[in-house]
Amino acid sequence: MKKYILLSFLLFTGIGAFAQKFAYVDTEYILGHLPEYKAALSQLNTSSEQFQKQLDVKFNEIDGMYKAYQADQVLLTDDMRKRRENDIIEKEKEAKEFQRQKFGPEGDLFQMRVKLINPIVEKVSKTIADFAKTKGLDFIFDKSNESTMMIYASSTYDLSKDIVIKLGYKPGKAE
Question: What is the pLDDT of residues 147-156, one digit of tens each?
Answer without folding.
Answer: 665 545 667 7
